[in-house]
Specification:
Layout lengths: L8 H13 L7 H7 L2 E7 L18 H8 L2 E7 L5 H10 L27 H7 L3 E7 L28 E5 L10 E3 L2 E2 L9 E3 L30 E2 L2 E2 L3 E3 L11 H15 L5 E6 L20 H23 L6 E7 L39 E7 L8 E3 L3 E2 L3 H9 L15 H4 L10 E4 L5 E4 L3 E4 L23 E4 L14 H17 L2
Parallel strand pairs: 1-11, 1-12, 2-14, 2-15, 3-4, 3-11
Antiparallel strand pairs: 2-13, 4-5, 5-6, 7-10, 8-9, 12-13, 16-17, 17-18, 18-19
The protein binds 2-acetamido-2-deoxy-6-O-sulfo-beta-D-galactopyranose and calcium ion.
């Protein structure tokens, strides 16, 4: 989509300069630069509503995140659109609910690119406005044209350059899924020709040891469930992989790689407006942070991963400061879904919580229909425009970022794109405390819920009350409709029978949303 749009900012910048000087329009680069904020998204993986100090975390310090919140707005009712990564990221980056689109569930590492090249994305919003755009870190939305058919030893035929990102340095999926290499602009970074890469999610490669047969080779982290296929860096993964050699990542260095590439991008583009999507690997499993973050809190690896995430935030903020860009850079910090404790590795996350509550007071967690699945931390800071130290209780959803940032950058959305995304910029910037009328949320099992400022309705769904394959999390399943009063903590009392009209009202909203837009 890169070339289809004209930049609208330049003429606007000229006009305002002309007006201010009362003379000839002068389109000096510096005035344009000053008028357009840089935008940096720091998108965490699996950080729950209660996992950061400024949201009540215990046992772990997050000073850099705290400072960001002190310098901006902290939202207490912000929602991801889904309780797992791929659908959440899909919706956020396209402004279209993932549940409308088949093939948007948690992706394998060899999935084909799920957002198609012709789709309009959040990155296109910024491209249209003349920004330099970059994506660094976790991707998890597929690469290449067709799943399972990528040649990882050559440039991929579809990658983030087709989705509006000028530059990308990404992990194809998650750290627990092969291929365990970074991909830079559609090619394996540090490619090692002596170790050609093969990837399969169907069958193992002859001669490659598997976690399930060779637990003695899992010297860095053993799995608690799943994650027993390929072994890379002494850690079992999902999927089979061969080769990689020097290109294989070391889990303990992933945060450093992400931070250094983010800083490099900002250095390079310091003289023009930029949009940078920094999607951290932290705190997804396998949690294996760098040694320097180890042992400083009582929660073990999960706590260390939170500290490492906070360090990444600090690195981004420090780079902006060094470049003199703090004042006019808008930073958004949030997470793709709610918290999980044991997500498949023996990292003792559960035993070592020591009173910490990853989802704070919320019920459920990652994967769940309950609030812990999708209510996440969200912080916006922009010293030039956003008042400091505000806490906003407004109901907000990440689905609205696309339309809101289109409004900020005065980008025109092409017809029939991002139809689920509404411009809610004033609320995101703290100029209004208006809640979204409703937000729709998707659990891992595809159950949809409707949230309003005060209520939550969860569709009926048969099935076990707890996840059966590993994580100790409530699914939110119930064969009956569920209605909760969200002014009370914890979604404890199902009020559906007591307030049938409210149930009907929320069901109607869901039906309208479901049928109104394709
Ligand atoms: C699950 C994985 C879990 C995590 C999740 C996706 C197993 C047993 N569990 O299937 O570890 O990778 O998928 O997480 O394989 S997400 O945050 O990327 O959506
Ligand atoms: Ca996630």
């Amino acid at each position: 989509m890169n070339h289809r749009f004209m930049a609208l900012w330049a003429p606007l910048a000229c006009a305002s300069v002309a007006h201010a000087t009362g003379g000839q329009p002068s389109c000096e680069k510096s005035s344009e630069k000053n008028s357009r904020p840089n935008v940096v998204f720091i998108y965490a993986d699996d950080i729950g509503f209660g996992d950061l100090e400024c949201y009540g975390a215990k046992n772990v310090k997050t000073p850099h995140v705290n400072r960001l919140a002190d310098n901006g707005i902290r939202f207490t009712n912000a929602h991801a659109t889904a309780a797992t990564s791929t659908p959440s990221r899909y919706s956020m980056l396209t402004g279209k609910y993932a549940w409308r689109v088949p093939g948007t569930d948690v992706a394998t590492g060899n999935a084909g690119m799920i957002i198609r090249p012709e789709q309009y994305t959040l990155a296109d919003v910024f491209k249209q406005a003349g920004y330099a755009t970059g994506a660094i870190g976790k991707w998890h939305l597929g690469l290449g044209d067709k799943g399972g058919e990528q040649d990882w030893n050559a440039p991929l035929c579809a990658a983030l350059g087709d989705l509006g990102f000028d530059y990308s340095y990404i992990m194809a999926a998650t750290a627990d899924r092969v291929p365990c290499v970074f991909i830079e602009n559609g090619k394996v970074a540090n490619y090692d020709p002596s170790a050609p890469i093969e990837v399969s999610y169907r069958k193992p490669f002859e001669g490659e040891p598997l976690g399930k047969d060779h637990p003695e080779l899992l010297y860095n982290l053993k799995s608690s469930h799943g994650h027993d296929m390929a072994i890379v860096n002494g850690i079992g993964r999902i999927g089979y992989m061969k080769g990689g050699g020097k290109a294989l990542w070391k889990d303990e260095n992933i945060a450093d790689s992400i931070a250094s590439h983010a800083i490099e991008f900002m250095d390079k583009h310091q003289h023009e407006p930029f949009f940078l999507y920094v999607a951290t690997n932290d705190i997804h499993v396998p949690r294996f942070p760098h040694e320097r973050f180890r042992g400083k809190n009582k929660m073990g690896l999960r706590g260390d991963a939170i500290a490492q995430f906070d360090w990444t935030v600090g690195q981004v903020v420090a780079a902006l400061e060094r470049l003199g860009l703090t004042e006019n850079t808008l930073i958004v910090l949030s997470s793709d879904n709610g918290a999980v404790v044991d997500d498949g590795y023996q990292d003792r996350a559960e035993e070592l919580l020591n009173g910490h509550r990853p989802t704070g007071p919320l019920r459920g967690g990652k994967y769940s229909s309950f609030e812990g699945g999708t209510r996440v931390p969200a912080i916006v800071s922009w010293p030039k425009e956003v008042k400091k130290g505000k806490v906003s209780p407004a109901l907000v959803s990440q689905i609205d970022w696309l339309a809101s940032f289109a409004s900020l950058t005065q980008s025109v959305l092409p017809k029939k794109t991002a139809t689920d995304s509404y411009n809610n910029l004033d609320t995101w910037l703290g100029k209004s405390s208006k809640s979204r009328d409703w937000a729709v949320e998707q659990a891992a099992n595809h159950t949809l819920s409707v949230r309003t400022a005060d209520w939550k309705y969860i569709e009926p769904k048969s099935g076990p009350a707890m996840i059966t394959w590993g994580p100790k999390i409530e699914t939110g399943n119930s064969p009956d409709p569920q209605l909760y009063d969200m002014t009370k903590e914890g979604e404890r009392e199902n009020l559906a029978a007591k307030y049938p009209d409210k149930v009907k009202e929320l069901q109607q909203i869901l039906e309208q949303v479901r049928s109104s837009k394709e």
